[in-house]
Amino acid sequence: MKGLCALRWLAFVVAILVLTPAAFAQTGASSNAAKTQGLATSLSHDLSGVWMQYPDGDVPGVPGMNAVSNRTRPPLTPWGQAKFDAAKPLVGPRAIPGEENNPELRCYPDGPPKLINLPNPFEIVQILGRVLMFFELGHIWREIWTDGRPLPKNPDPSYLGYSVGHWEGDTFVVDTVGFNDKLWDDSYGNPRSDQTHLIERYRRLNHDTLELQITIDDPKAYTKPWVSPPKLHKLEPGWEIAEWFCVLDEDNAYDDAVRKPAGVAPAAK
Amino acid sequence: MNLAVRLAGSLGVLATVLAISSVVFAQDTKPAENRSVPAVNSSTSSVPAPPLSHDLSGVWMQYPDGPAPGVPGMNAIDQRFRPPFTPWGQARFDAARPMQGPTAVAGQENAPTLRCDPDGPPRVLNLPNPFEIIQIPGRVLMFFELGHVWRTIWTDGRALPKDPDPTWLGYSVGKWDGDTFVVDTIGFNDKLWVDVYGSPRSEKMHLTERYRRLNHDTLEMQITMDDPKAYTKVWVNPPKLHKLEPTWEIAEWFCVIEEEHAYSDTIRIPAGTPPTGKK
What we know:
The complex is a heterodimer. Chain A is α+β, with helices and mostly antiparallel strands. Chain A is built from 4 helices and 10 strands. Chain A has helices spanning 4-25, 78-86, 114-117, 248-262; strands spanning 49-53, 122-127, 130-135, 140-145, 162-168, 171-177, 197-206, 209-217, 226-227, 231-235. In chain A, strands 1-2-3-4-5-6-7-8-10 form a 9-stranded mixed barrel. In chain A, strand 8 (209-217) and strand 9 (226-227) form a beta hairpin. The longest helix of chain A has 22 residues, at 4-25. Chain B is an alpha+beta fold. Chain B has one domain (3-30, 52-272). In chain B, strands 1-2-3-4-5-6-7-8-10 form a 9-stranded mixed barrel. The A-B interface holds A 2-3, 106-109, 125, 127, 132, 134, 139-141, 156, 158-160, 241, 243, 245, 247-249 and B 3-4, 115-118, 134, 136, 141, 143, 148-150, 152, 165, 167-169, 252, 254, 256-258.
C-alpha cells in the first residue's frame, strides 16, 4: 500500500474535481444491492482485517463515499442550515476552488462518520474488551469498548466521540456520542453537532464482504434521523495500513500544486 | 484518565518546565544520583526472577525522575550522553529553536510540534505522557496519548525493508532476546527532533529500543540511536523506568493547529518569557 495510496488518493481527488459538477447534475442509480445477493453466512463475530469500500458511489464518477448518502439526508434544522451554508466544501455542487474551508484542509483530525465514509482502507482488530479501528487516512485510530460499559452520561466533546459496541445476532452495533461540532458528516459540508448519536451496524456477509450501515441521529442539525443505505466493503488480505498523516505544510504545498489548479471551474460555469 | 485533568496537568507541567528550564540549564546539571526510582532500582539483575511472559501489555507512564531538577522525566533520551554532532548535525541543531532548554527564545520557537507535525520515535517515547502497549499475533502496537499517535512493530519475523520510504514513525520490527523485547526501526524522515532541545534526526538513523518488564508494575526502556549523519558516535542512553497504570485509559488528545496557536498565545509564550535582565 505504501506509496500507492498517495497516488490513489491524488488520482481520486482529481477525478472528483473534474467530474463532480456533471455528476451532480445527473441522477445517480443505486448500485450495491446486487452484490448482497447470494451471500452465504458463516458468521463468527469476527470483523478482523483490512477493509476497503467498493467504489460504487451514488453518483457516477464518484468512487464510493456513499456510506453516508446525500440522497437520504433529512431536512436541516435552522442551526444545521446555517452551518451548512457556511461550509465551503472541496467537492460537490457548492465547491468553489480557492474558497474551501473543509476542516481537513487545516489538518483537523477526521472523525466518524466522515472518516468511515472516505474511500480509504481501514483495519479492524478485536482484542479483549475492545474493537480497534485503524484508518489509513490521517493515521487515525479509534477504540470501541465492548466490555459492557454504558455510554458516558456527560462526555467531553471530542473529534472521535466515545464509542461502545455490542453484538445483536450477527450484527455488531456501535453507538457513539460525545462529538464536538468542528467536523462535517460528509465531504459536502453537512454538519455534525455535539448532540449527534451515531449508530453503525456492521455485518460480515461472507468471508470477504463487510456490510456497514450508518444512522446519524442529530436533532440539533437535522429534523429527522439520517438513515443511510448499507454499504459494502471488501476484505483486502494482502494490504497493510500505511503511514499517511495530514501535515499542514505538505497539505498547503499539495493545495497549491495540484488541488487548486485541478479544481479551477470551467469558464462557462 | 480524565482528559481535562490530564491536559491541565500537562499544561501545568509544561508551564513549569518553561519557567524553570532556563534556570535549570544555567546550572551545572551534574548526573543526578538522587533519582528517586520507586519499585525497583535500574540495575536490576538482582531482581528475583519475575515471571517474564513476554507480555508488555498495559498503559505505562514514565517516572518523573529527570536528571535536571524541575524537569519531570523526559530522560529516556539523555542529553548528558549525546555524542558530538557531525557538521550536518550541528547545522541542524543550530537552526533549531526549541521551546525549552538553554537555546530557547520565547516567541521564536520552531519546534515541529508547534506546526502539529506528527511526533515520532524516539521523541514520542521520551515525552512525559502515557502510552499503551497491545500485543496481537504478529504485531506489537503502541498507542501514545500525545497526538493520538499509534505505531506498529512487526513481530512476524519479517526483515527490515531494504529501501524504505522516509516516514514520521519509521518502519519497526521487534523480537524477543531472552526477557528483552528489542525493536529496530529505520526509514525515518529528517523532519523531527529526537528530543525537546532540537537534537536532530536524519534519515540514516537506526533506532534500537530495548524493553524489559522488571516486575508486574515496572517496564524498563533503553534507547540507542545510531545516526551517523547527525552524530559522530552512537548515542546510548541509560535505562528509563515506566510504571504500569492499570486504571488509565488513553484519552483523545490531538494536536490541532488553531488550538495550538491559541495555547501558545495565551499561555506558552507568556510563561516562557525570560525574566527581566536574564539573557
